[in-house]
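Lecture 7 notes: from sequence to structure.

We start with a single chain of 169 residues. Read the sequence below before looking at the structure.
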Amino acid sequence: MRALPQILRLRPNAHIIIIGDDKVSYGAAPPPGRSWKSVYLDEVADRIDPRRVHFLGPVPYATYIKALQVSSAHVYLTYPFVLSWSLIEAMSAGCIVIASNTGPLHEVIDGENGMLTPFFDVEGLASKVAHVLANQRTYEPMRAAARATAIDRYSIERCVPKLVSFVAR
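Now the structure, written as C-alpha cells:
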C-alpha cells in the first residue's frame, strides 16, 4: 500500500488490482474496529487516485487466474511467513513477480524467474514495479522462466509421485 502513490505517479496509466479478503488469517490482528486494509489505506488515501486502485475482495478461483494471466506485474510480499501457493500460481500464469527478499522466497525466486526486493524498501519496490510496467518486452524471458519454474518444480505431475513415495516410506 505504501508503494502505491509512487507507482501511480510513475505510471499514470496503471491500474492496481488487489484481490483477497481483508480478514486476518495469519499474524497479528489490526487495532480494534479496524482492518489492516483500512489502516494502510488511511495512510495513503490522500496520495492515490481511488479510480485506479481496485479492491476486488475474495473472487472465484477462475477470476483470480484470469487476473494473473493479464497482469503486467505481480507483487508478492511475505514477512516472515511460509511460501504460499499463490506465488506458485502467479509464476505458473507467467507473471513477472516482484517479491519480498525474505527467507521463504529464496527457495523459488532466483533473479531469472522473478525479482526480490527488501521488504521494507517502499521506494525500491515502487521503482521496480514502475520499471517492469514501462519495459514489458524486456521481461518476457522472466515470464517464461517463472512459468517453467512452476511447472518443473511444483506441477501435480512432479509433486504427486514424490508425495506418494514419501507416504509409502
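The first helix runs from residue 4 to 10. Keep this in mind for problem set 3.
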